[in-house]
Design goal:
By secondary structure, the chain is α/β, with parallel strands linked by helices. The chain has two domains: about 350 residues, Leucine-rich repeat, LRR (right-handed beta-alpha superhelix); about 70 residues, Immunoglobulin-like (Sandwich). The chain contains six helices and 32 strands. The relative contact order is 0.05. About 5% of the residues have low confidence.
Length: about 450
């Protein structure tokens, strides 16, 4: 006698079994490996799908450290999310990251380090979010990181260190904010910072150091604020700070040091506030601080030390002396005129916290500068009138006099332009290149200075 179940009971059992199957499959497809997984050979990667069927979200860390044994990551195609950290390091035969093509989220940090044959991050094209730090270091043959072009969030720190062949930051063009630090160090092939054009703010430190071929900072063109420090140091080829034109605020210290070929800092023209020490030292080629005229507050130590070609510090004249805690002007071999307004004002209110020595006569001691600041004679007033930059391209500025008439005289003695001395800068864009003379006449004085138009 064959047992027959009522039709309704049969359907109930079928539905129950189907729910069990769906639930089981769903559990398998959700989070697995809460304690993470460590891959140290190719076999462990190749067998992952067999050992963990349906495992798409890994709850813990994932670490690959295979020395020469790991050659590809194709066995990891099912992984979509890693809730912990992802470390890919010391896998010397890994050429790219193909096999991580479906990975879209890393909850912790991503560290890719010490992979000698890695040339690109191909395989990470779908990665859109890193919960913590992105650290890329000691990948000596890494040429590009363009595969990161879908990445929109780095919640903590960006470290790019000791990647000898990395040519650009193309791939990070969707990153607008880094909430903590950005370290760019010892990347010898970088000539600029192209790829970081969308970066608007950095919450912590921006450190750019020891990048042997770096010529300028182009790529940081939309950066307007830095957190607790901007440090640009020991970049031997760096010629200018092009790229920092929109930087307005550093909510901490500013260190520009030991950039032996730095000749131009005019790109800092929009910088108004440094809420910490301002250190400008051992930049051996620069002659002028033109570009810092907008800086009005530093809230810390003002230090200009060992800039052996520096002869003009007019650029710091607008700093409010009450925001300076200590003033150090030392070992600037060609600097003979230091009696600019901010320096004179500080000497009036806080001479005890001033150190001035080993500069050129005229700025060799604090007493010399105090005397120059105290002079009220017409001779001193004339000596304080300065034209800069000189040579000039399209515009120039005049300091030391607020009212008067400007005449531009060509080499044949003809007046080619007249202007009233009451503006921030004066245009000569319509004039041909050559040597001109700028005659400045006021109620009390008249002076003529040479100006070269480039």
């Amino acid at each position: 006698m064959k047992l027959q179940l009522p039709l309704t009971t049969f359907f109930k059992i079928a539905i129950f079994l189907n729910l069990i199957f769906i639930s089981s499959a769903s559990l398998k497809a959700q989070s697995c490996l809460p304690n993470g997984v460590f891959f140290n050979n190719q076999a462990s990667i190749d067998n992952f799908a067999t050992n963990y069927p349906g495992c798409t979200t890994i709850g813990g860390w994932v670490e690959l450290n295979g020395f020469s044994d790991i050659t590809n990551l194709n066995g990891l195609l099912q992984i979509e999310e890693i809730q912990g950290n992802l470390l890919i390091q010391e896998s010397d035969n890994l050429i790219d990251l193909s096999g991580l093509d479906n990975l879209h989220t890393i909850g912790g940090f991503l560290k890719i380090a010490g992979n000698d044959d890695l040339t690109s991050f191909h395989g990470l094209e779908n990665l859109s979010s890193i919960g913590s730090r992105l650290r890329i270091e000691y990948n000596i043959n890494l040429e590009n990181i363009t595969a990161l072009s879908n990445l929109t969030v780095i919640n903590n720190t960006l470290d790019v260190i000791n990647n000898d062949n990395l040519l650009s930051f193309n791939g990070l063009e969707n990153i607008t904010t880094v909430f903590d630090e950005v370290y760019i160090e010892n990347n010898d092939a970088l000539e600029n910072l192209n790829g970081l054009e969308s970066l608007v703010s950095i919450g912590g430190r921006l450190l750019i150091a020891r990048n042997g071929s770096l010529l300028n900072l182009d790529g940081l063109n939309n950066l307007n604020s830095v957190g607790w420090e901007l440090s640009i140091s020991e970049n031997p080829a760096l010629e200018s700070l092009i790229g920092l034109e929109l930087l307005a605020t550093i909510d901490g210290s500013c260190l520009i040091s030991s950039n032996n070929n730095l000749i131009n800092i005019s790109s800092l023209a929009n910088l108004t506030t440094v809420n910490g020490d301002f250190y400008f030292g051992s930049n051996f080629a620069i002659t002028s601080l033109a570009g810092l005229e907008g800086l009005i507050s530093i809230n810390g130590i003002l230090n200009m030390t060992s800039n052996f070609q520096l002869s003009n510090i007019e650029g710091i004249r607008n700093i409010d002396a009450t925001t300076i805690t200590n003033l150090n002007i030392n070992n600037n071999d060609l600097l003979s005129e230091c009696a600019v307004k901010s320096v004179c004002d500080f000497l009036d209110i806080n001479p005890a916290n001033t150190n001035i020595f080993f500069n050129n006569p005229g700025c060799e001691t604090r007493e010399e500068v105090e005397s120059a600041c105290a002079l009220g004679t017409e001779e001193n007033q004339i000596s304080q009138i300065k034209i800069y930059p000189n040579p000039a391209n399209n515009t120039f500025e005049i300091s030391g006099l607020k009212e008067g008439i400007i005449e531009i005289i060509d080499s044949q003695g003809r007046t080619v332009k007249q202007m009233v001395l009451n503006e921030n800068n004066y245009s000569i864009s319509e004039l041909s290149s050559g040597i001109y003379f700028v005659k400045i006449t006021s109620e009390k004085t008249s002076i003529t200075k040479q100006l070269i138009k480039t």
